[in-house]
Amino acid sequence: MKSNKTTELMVGMFIAAGVAALFVLAMQVSNLSSFGNGDTYRVTARFENIGGLKVRSAVTVGGVRVGRVASIDYDSERFQAVVGLDLESKYNRFPEDTSAAIYTAGLLGEQYVALEPGGSEDVLKDGSQIELTQSALVLEKLISKFLFQKASEGDQK
Amino acid sequence: MLEFIRQLGRGGIGQFAKLGRANLFMLKVLGGFPGLVRRPGLLVAQLWSVGVLSLMIIVVSGLFVGMVLGLQVYNTLVDFGAEESLGVAVALSIVRELGPVVTALLFAGRAGSALAAEIGLMKATEQLSGMEMMAVDPIHRVVAPRFLAGFISMPLLAAIFSAVGIYGGYFVGVALLGVDDGAYWSQMQAKVDLFDDILNGVIKSLVFGWVVTWIAVFEGYDAIPTSEGVSRATTRTVVYAAFAVLGLDFVLTALMFGD
């Protein structure tokens, strides 16, 4: 073993390197940097079909992430999915008639909620509900629609 | 036939007795921790030999594991035109599994075997009984600092392994194969969760550090005090530690990521 001081120095550097590595993992690799500064407000939206949307999926406006999906529930009286959206407080100027749609990032990517601002004077507040929604596209439905259409065209000829 | 069954029973009783000794031993080691507050020098010296000296092999293996992973995953993903997801694949597999597990296996080979051999030799050369004669508890003086050093070093080493590995994947993917720099990090940041992935990886490495060091110091302390006994204790340390790490990894993965 080397002299006591060198040992202590190297051990100190080792511990510092370990902590720094943890820090890199937290800041650079994980989603910590994309957490908001904490303050959010909750709005809800009702969809006929949410496809593969998950809790923590992104909520975007014009491609910019403004919040996350906070909860997903099913309303068994109105047969609709109820999605709670946590929007960051700094984006608090969305008109009340903002519409929400579920899109897919890329062909096989994750699904996310895209908001489209409307023209109303009043803004969305904590607890507001988004009235205008558009469900997720389910690929199988789309294909079967297309096939039926083709088939009926064939019948007419 | 009867003789065979009796042998089986004797083996079983022996194993249980050993397990019991290991647990009592662990309790004594834990009892030695308060004494370390008064003698931090013992801990620092062990952190040097257990942690700092393991650093080289951890950094080099981390780098190469990350680079190989980058290369292999890229070759698979490029068929689907999804090579932007390289960062996610590399980061998740390293942070969740490879980081803790490979580090624990290397740690068992590099530091665990050394701990077992050192303590076993101390026993064989009657240094431990010598300490007892001087009213110094060898478990407090010799074993406790080594155990604590292993327990502290392992998560730090695993974190270094993971960080270096992810940069290794970055080097191969972005610098050599031409994946987009921003996509590598941003997709990773979007998919890797601080608590679900990174914290669970750290918990895994804490558990592995505990188990590997426990096996190492116990096997050393429990060794038959001959040169052959010490060599067998060293071998057993590495083998048992590898079994324990791989088995526990399955259990921990099932508990953490199972839903």
Task: Tell me the series of helices and strands of chain A, N- to C-terminal.
Answer: HEEEEEEEEH
Approximate shape of chain A = elongated
| Number of strand elements of chain B | 0
Helix share bin of chain B: over 70%
Overall domain count of chain A: 2
Q: Helicity of chain A, in percent?
A: 25-40%
Query: How large is the radius of gyration of chain B?
Result: 21 Å
Radius of gyration of chain A: 24 Å
Largest sheet of chain B: none
The biggest beta sheet of chain A, please? 8 strands, mixed
Number of helices of chain A: 2
Q: Which structural class do the helices and strands of chain B define?
A: mainly alpha
Spans of at least 5 consecutive residues with low confidence of chain B: none
Overview of the molecule:
The complex is a heterodimer of chains A (157) and B (259). Chain A is an alpha/beta fold and 157 residues long. Chain A has two domains: 1-34; 40-143, no CATH class. Chain A has helices spanning 4-29, 139-156; strands at 40-47, 58-61, 64-75, 80-88, 99-104, 111-116, 129-130, 132-134. The longest helix of chain A has 26 residues, at 4-29. Chain B has 259 residues and is mostly helical. Chain B has one domain (32-257). Chain B contains ten helices and no strands. The model of chain B has no long low-confidence stretch (mean pLDDT 90). The chains are: A alpha/beta (157), B mainly alpha (259).
